[in-house]
Design brief:
300 residues, eight-stranded mixed β-sheet, 13 strands, elongated
Length: 300
């Protein structure tokens, strides 16, 4: 087996498409490229190849890296806006995963790594993805009874009665709500990357891709005060980005979470994926946790 560096974007794309399992939307080349093209860092995809039939070399693994010039090191391709990153490996060849990481030179910081193989599970845990399996859950009340204590159920119901007293109107699929989402998210989170045009452009470009995008907007007194973008991908509902004016209606952000959970149920999703990090609410909602690992190498 040899491991060679691929720096040509077209060849890198071809290798990606040949090896990706497309198990999650973050495996999709077009999803990642929507962000990469607005921050086109140098790439170095590490391709593991072996002798195949007719003397031709066959790719059996790929570690897709880019050089992030803002901090001077290697990370996963379009890592900033993606989760569940990992090398792509031909089935049964998980033994080459550590060899791919070892072949990376210089300063390397690969975060948000998913995987069940022995090497990945040996890495330090960085954070968790929070997921709710929806089997047997057909309504909000089903979720409350399955996951929350009677006291917390009462608290949730009380909180949402207060929000509903403001007569919120819920809208689905309005493209114009994306602009409100960007503004609400940037105002709500001091470190929001949606403050930057290139990041907003990447999210806008995603909407031209043929996936089942789910846009939710919530109006209160005639103006949008909460919005979110999610996607239904292979029976998984991914709650991607959101924003809410919590000062306009206390509890509105929590209510937006509820609306998206109900939407996932309505669409027949098997899982509601609330994404990476607790964000000060996911532990309280008693969602299942899936570890995300990191691999760091070299010195700052």
């Amino acid at each position: 087996m040899i491991i060679r560096k691929v720096t040509d974007l077209k060849e890198a794309e071809s290798l990606w498409r040949a090896l990706t399992p497309n198990a999650t939307i973050f495996d999709e080349w077009d999803f990642r490229y929507s962000f990469y093209k607005h921050k086109p860092y140098p790439i170095s995809f590490l391709a593991a190849e072996e002798e195949g039939g007719s003397g031709r070399r066959e790719a059996v693994g790929l570690l897709p890296l880019e050089y992030n010039e803002s901090w001077g090191g290697w990370e996963f391709f379009a890592e900033e806006h993606c989760e569940e990153s990992r090398p792509f490996i031909k089935a049964g060849r998980e033994d080459i995963i550590p060899k791919l990481y070892e072949a990376a030179s210089g300063l390397v910081k690969c975060d948000d790594i998913s995987g069940d193989d022995e090497f990945t599970r040996s890495l330090p845990i960085e954070d968790y993805i929070y997921v709710l399996p929806l089997a047997g859950l057909n309504s909000w009340e089903d979720y409350l009874k399955a996951r929350l204590s009677p006291k917390k159920q009462r608290n949730f119901r009380s909180d949402f009665r207060k929000v509903e007293a403001a007569s919120p109107k819920i809208f689905y699929g309005r493209q114009a709500d994306i602009d409100f989402l960007f503004k609400l998210n940037a105002a709500q989170f001091n470190d929001s990357y949606l403050q930057f045009k290139e990041d907003r452009d990447g999210w806008r470009d995603l909407l031209s891709l043929p996936f089942s995008w789910q846009i939710v907007g919530i109006e209160v007194s005639g103006s949008v005060q909460a919005a979110s973008l999610s996607v239904l991908y292979k029976d998984n509902y991914l709650y991607l980005i959101n924003g809410a004016n919590k000062t306009a209606v206390p509890g509105l952000g929590k209510y937006l979470n509820k609306i998206n959970l109900e939407r996932a149920m309505e669409l027949g999703a098997k899982h509601w994926d609330a994404g990476l990090g607790d964000c000060q609410w996911k532990e309280a909602w008693h969602l299942d946790k899936i570890p995300q690992y990191y691999f760091h190498k070299g010195e700052d």
